[in-house]
Each structure stands twice: as structure tokens, then as C-alpha cells.
Design a protein that fits this description.
The complex is a heterotrimer. By secondary structure, chain B is an all-alpha fold. Chain B is built from 8 helices and no strands. Chain C contains 2 helices and no strands. The chains are: A mainly alpha, B mainly alpha, C mainly alpha.
């Protein structure tokens, strides 16, 4: 009985460890996403013509930047599997194929968390008007839920797109509309936290919407992922 | 799903649409605050409702395809989503006209149904490019079904999120000066809804009938004139059920597997 | 009915009518475009069917001619 629990998670953990190891040895996704985010902040400064942002504007700039940076990561998520026969490996191994989905979603989540640790700090320094500290706990909750949405939808769309001809074109046009409710909820939830006159309360309505999104898409993606891996 | 039912369905649809037009202009009372402009709603709202339901139906057909592996369900799912996309555009156009008539702008952000309609359109507009980019027909059908299921689940979630995000929701446009929804307006609305839904079913039936006829013609041509007389279909986003084992060219996805390339 | 219309329009009828007409025209236009595309497909299909029919008749005539020749030789 006690053997079953760890053995169910072991394939996912193994796959996850492999991805983390690959990224640590030859970092490509995380630095790229980081650079992209910071560059985007600079672009926003010039594009919006503002030195500081606060409130809804700040929440919007931060969440949209994270979303676009995530697209970079999503594009690259299954490239190693596609090019080195990883899909065949998962199909041949006597494991539940969904383990690949769990591992990839977890990897993306961790990459995003890492990127955000630096990005949010950069945002606070470069563009954010009010102080970050009072907003931080609430912001971490919002970003955690957003990352979960990005991870789940990203892993599925990435797997969907990787075996098509136009893979990096398909990812943004499919993932961005699909992530719109998550973006709406995250931006609306973060807005009162970044208020110019002191952080407001975390709106639970929007956290509930984000949570619902994560739940529905998480379960659905988990259920349909198998069908993507059949050949 | 073609042949005999089609004529009856066409007649019923024609009758329903004509009757609805007549009712809208000669029977339905005027709305209290929108006045004559409100008549647009008898087209716009049924189209919107049918579109969203159609997307969900497309998702259900896609799930049936994955469950039964019968490619007929993929065909039905494809056609339903295809026609729903056309309806989606129609809904956006009529919604935009209504916005211009009511507020003088061709687009308004504070009408949540219209906004979520746009987002749904942006998502489902990727359905065909996605299908087109996968050459192996079996994989195309499978991946399209996975997409359709996710997108179908997306529709209600998106509506909830956008509605919650919209600051000021305009008052619902179904009321006369005496307040509330009068029976006559409700009646006309239900007629309009049925007519639009019938029209949708009719368009789907025509699409499927046209496709099946095309495949039968090709098969006939192949039998009579030999396999060489029939030009291959080439890449397409649409499912092709009648073709004899279409395989993807080797430059497609399959050969990139090292196992395949090695053999 | 005209009394009703004159009594409570939100916009002067000329303007409002323009937009309502536009909406219904768009609706009918989209349907008509679809019908036109379907009609074109149907035409193409019936042309092909006629071609195939001609091919069948030619083949049958050919077979009938050969059967006659075989009869005549006997």
C-alpha cells in the first residue's frame, strides 16, 4: 500500500527532475524569459510615456508582461521531447502518459516562479510607483494562481502545437485567448494591491475566478492529454 | 444526415425565418428605452445564444469522437464549429451595429456579452489554422478534438470572467414602457431563437451533405476512370472521411521521430 | 402601428431605421453568400456527375459494340 503512492508520482518526479537538470546545465528558457520581461518593462516605459505606474495600470503591465514571457517558455517546453524522441520514450515506458503532462506543467510553473522572483523585483524598481512590500503577500497569491493557469494551459497547448508545422505560430494564437479569463482575474485581483495610496484588500471574487479557471482547466487538461500522445 | 430530411428542414427554416421577420416588425411592441433599435436584438441575441451553444455542442461531438474513434463525430464537430464561427462573425457585426445605433461607437467595452463574444471568436478562429497545420488526417482529427474540448470548456468560464470584469452592465433590452417582459416580446424572441437555431441546423446539414456528395463523387470517379483520374485532395483543414487511407507525406510530422527515420 | 412607432422611438425613426435595416441586411447577406457558395459547389458537382454519366455510357456502348462483334463472328 505504501509502495503505491510514491510509484504513482515517481515517473512525473523523474521527468520533472530531468527538465530541471537540463535547464540548470544549459539555461535557455529562464534567462530568455527574464530578459524579455525586463526589456518589456523598458518598452512600456516608453510606450506609455510614464515614469511610474500604479493601480490597475501597474497590475495590467505586470500580468501582461508575465503572460507574454510565459509564451516564450511555452514555445520551448516540448522541444527536447520532439527532437530527441522523448515522446516515444514516454509511450514505450510502462507509465501513465499523463505523467509527462504533470511533469511539464510543474516544470513550467517552477520556471515561471523563478522568473517572477526577479521580474517582480525589477518591476518594483523600474516602473512601480507605490512600495512593493505591503502588496507582496497578496501579489504572491495572485501570481501563484496565475502561474498555475499558465502552467496547465501552457503545457497542453505546447503539446498540441509541437507536432504541427507552424508550432511557434500556433502557441500564441491559441494560448493567449484561452488565457484571457486568467489574465482578467489576475489583473483585477492585483490592481487594488498596487494602489497609489496604499495597498487595498485582496479581492476574493477574482481569486475565486482564477481558482475556478485553474480547477476546470487543470482537470480537463489532465483528462485529454493522453489523446495527444498516441502515435 | 442528408437527402430526404433536407427539404423538410429547408422549408421549415424558411417558414420560421419569414414568420419571425414578420413578427418582429409587425407584432412585437416597442421597447421602452431603446425604441426601434431594440429590434436588432431579435437577430443579435438568438445568434449569440446559438453560437455559444454550438461551440459547446462542437466540444461534445469532439469528446464523442475521442471516445468512439468514429471519424463521423469529428466531421460533425468540425462542421458545427465552422458554422458557429460564421455565426460568431454575424453576431459581432450585428452587435457592433447595435452599439453604433445605441451609443454612437462601433465598439463598446462595457457590454460583457459582446466582449466575451470577441474573445471566443479569437480562440475559435485558430481552430482551422490548427487543423491545417497537421497533415496526418487521423492526428489532425484527434488534436482538433482535444482543442475543441478545451475551447468548449473555455466558453462559459470566459463569459463569467468578462461579466464580472465589466463595470457597468447595460439594462437588459427587453421591456416595454409598462416594465417587465411582456408576453408578446417573449413570444417573438422565442420564435426568433427557434428560427436562428433551425437555420444553424440547416446550414450544418447542407455542409455535411455537400462534403459527403463530394466524397461519393470522387469514389465514383475513381471506380469508373481509375485511381489516376482523381486528383489527390492535398492539405486541408477539413476532415475527409471517404478518401482511401490518406497518409501524410514523409516531410510531415512522422518522419521527424528518430525511430521512424532510422527504419 | 404607425401611431405606435411615432409614439416612442429612441432615435428619430429615419436614423434608427437605418441601423436596424443594416443589421437585418447583414444577416440576410451572410446567408445569401453562403447560399451562393453552396450553389457554386452544387454546379461543379452536377457537372462532374454529367461527365461520369457520359463515361459510363461510353463504356456501355463500347461493351455493346464488342458484344455485337463477337456475335457477328460466330
Amino acid at each position: 500500500m505504501s509502495d503505491r503512492e510514491p510509484s504513482r508520482m515517481r515517473p512525473s518526479m523523474a521527468l520533472l527532475r530531468k527538465d530541471l537538470l537540463l535547464e540548470r546545465r544549459a539555461p535557455e528558457a529562464v534567462p530568455a524569459m527574464l530578459l524579455f520581461s525586463v526589456t518589456t518593462f523598458v518598452l512600456f516605459h516608453f510606450g506609455l510615456g510614464r515614469d511610474t505606474v500604479s493601480g490597475q495600470l501597474a497590475a495590467g503591465v505586470l500580468t501582461v508582461t508575465i503572460l507574454f514571457a510565459a509564451i516564450l517558455g511555452i514555445n520551448r517546453l516540448f522541444v527536447a521531447e520532439q527532437e530527441e524522441g522523448g515522446f516515444d520514450g514516454v509511450l514505450l515506458a510502462p507509465i501513465d502518459r499523463t505523467a509527462l503532462f504533470v511533469a511539464k506543467a510543474a516544470a513550467l510553473f517552477l520556471f515561471l516562479a523563478l522568473v517572477e522572483a526577479v521580474t517582480v523585483a525589477a518591476f518594483a524598481i523600474l516602473l512601480l510607483g507605490p512600495s512593493l512590500w505591503p502588496a507582496l503577500p497578496g501579489l504572491l497569491v495572485v501570481l501563484a494562481l496565475l502561474d498555475l493557469a499558465l502552467a496547465v494551459v501552457g503545457a497542453l497547448v505546447s503539446a498540441l502545437a509541437i507536432r504541427t508545422r507552424a508550432r511557434d505560430l500556433i502557441v500564441p494564437i491559441v494560448a493567449l485567448p484561452m488565457l484571457t479569463p486568467a489574465l482578467i482575474a489576475a489583473a483585477r485581483a492585483a490592481a487594488p494591491l498596487l494602489n497609489a495610496h496604499g495597498a487595498g484588500a485582496l479581492p476574493t471574487k477574482w481569486l475565486a475566478v482564477l481558482g475556478l479557471y485553474d480547477l476546470v482547466f487543470g482537470l480537463l487538461a489532465y483528462a485529454v492529454f493522453d489523446f495527444l500522445l498516441e502515435d | 444526415m442528408y437527402g430526404k430530411g433536407l427539404r423538410a428542414l429547408s422549408l421549415a427554416t424558411f417558414a420560421a425565418v419569414t414568420a419571425t421577420f414578420a413578427l418582429v416588425f409587425f407584432y412585437a411592441p416597442l421597447d421602452a428605452d431603446q425604441g426601434f433599435i431594440q429590434k436588432i436584438f431579435y437577430v443579435h441575441v438568438p445568434v449569440a445564444i446559438v453560437t455559444l451553444c454550438a461551440y459547446v455542442v462542437g466540444a461534445i461531438f469532439a469528446a464523442l469522437h475521442l471516445r468512439t474513434r468514429d471519424r463521423k463525430w469529428d466531421l460533425r464537430s468540425y462542421v458545427v464549429i465552422h458554422i458557429a464561427l460564421i455565426y460568431n462573425i454575424l453576431g459581432l457585426l450585428t452587435g457592433s451595429i447595435w452599439a453604433k445605433a445605441s451609443w454612437g461607437h462601433w465598439w463598446v467595452w462595457d457590454e460583457p456579452t459582446l466582449v466575451s463574444f470577441l474573445i471566443v471568436f479569437l480562440l475559435f478562429a485558430t481552430y482551422q489554422p490548427l487543423r491545417f497545420s497537421i497533415e496526418d488526417p487521423e492526428r489532425q482529427a484527434r488534436y482538433a478534438s482535444v482543442f475543441a474540448i478545451m475551447a468548449g470548456a473555455f466558453v462559459p468560464l470566459n463569459f463569467v470572467a468578462v461579466r464580472a470584469a465589466t463595470a457597468f452592465v447595460h439594462p437588459r433590452v427587453f421591456a416595454t414602457s409598462s416594465g417587465g417582459l411582456p408576453g408578446s416580446m417573449a413570444f417573438v424572441f422565442v420564435c426568433a431563437l427557434m428560427a436562428i437555431a433551425l437555420l444553424f441546423a440547416l446550414l450544418c446539414s447542407y455542409e455535411i451533405a455537400a462534403k459527403q456528395t463530394k466524397w461519393k463523387l470522387r469514389a465514383l470517379r475513381r471506380r469508373l476512370l481509375g485511381a489516376d483520374a482523381v486528383a489527390p485532395l492535398g492539405r486541408s483543414a477539413a476532415p475527409a472521411l471517404g478518401e482511401p487511407g490518406r497518409r501524410a507525406p514523409s516531410a510531415g510530422g512522422r518522419a521527424s521521430h528518430p525511430a521512424e527515420a532510422a527504419s | 402601428m404607425s401611431a405606435l412607432l411615432a409614439a416612442a422611438p429612441a432615435l428619430p425613426l429615419g436614423e434608427a431605421g437605418k441601423y436596424v435595416a443594416a443589421a437585418f441586411v447583414v444577416f440576410v447577406a451572410v446567408i445569401l453568400i453562403y447560399v451562393a457558395i453552396m450553389a457554386a459547389k452544387l454546379q461543379r458537382m452536377s457537372r462532374e456527375l454529367a461527365e461520369l454519366n457520359a463515361a459510363v455510357e461510353a463504356r456501355e456502348r463500347g461493351e455493346a459494340a464488342r458484344a455485337e462483334q463477337a456475335e457477328a463472328r460466330r
